[in-house]
Structures are given as structure tokens and as C-alpha cells.
């Protein structure tokens, strides 16, 4: 989880490998804002950080074979929140 730079929004990864945006003042999901990470092979998102308009997502999936370049990867997504 991470907050936007102004603290107005919280971004959290879910067990469905999506990032949800929460309006922090109302503690409610922002309607129509979801980022699906499954097309990028994220299988077990452990952490999400928002840095300079980019999401850094740590993937802790243990089921990839040794030598797979995505094993324990950190994905970087440039997304407009």
C-alpha cells in the first residue's frame, strides 16, 4: 500500500493482482479506477509503492522455475492516477 503524494488517495494491491484506488477522506473505492496486473504476469504482489507517477510492485511468487527472469521481480508501471 502507498499514499499519493498529497495523501488524498491510498493505492493497495489485492489478492486478485489488481491495484485499487481508495479516496482516503471517505475511505471508499474510487469508482472506475482499477489497475489489473495479471496481463503482465504479476502473480503475488507483495508491495506497491507510488514514486514519481510510477507504481513499483514487488512480486513474491515462488512457483516460477529457477532462471525465470520474472522470479522475484519488481515491476514498474507508469500509470496516470
Please, could you describe this protein's structure?
By secondary structure, the protein is mainly beta. Helices cover 0% and strands 49% of the residues. The radius of gyration is 13 Å and the shape is elongated.
Give the strand order, joined by hyphens, for the main sheet.
1-2-3-4
- Tell me how many strands there are: 7
Please indicate the percent range of residues in DSSP E strands (runs of 2 or more): over 45%
Low-pLDDT segments, ≥5 res:
none
Largest sheet: 4 strands, antiparallel
SSE string, helix = H, strand = E? EEEEEEE
Radius of gyration: 13 Å
Counting helices, strands and paired strands, the structural category is mainly beta
Topology:
Elements (H helix, E strand, L loop, with lengths): L1 E2 L5 E5 L4 E6 L4 E9 L8 E7 L2 E6 L14 E5 L3
Antiparallel strand pairs: 1-2, 2-3, 3-4, 5-6, 6-7
Which features would summarize this protein structure in a list?
3-stranded antiparallel beta sheet; 4-stranded antiparallel beta sheet; mainly beta; 81 residues; 49% strand
Summarize the structure.
The protein has 81 residues and is an all-beta fold. It contains no helices and seven strands.
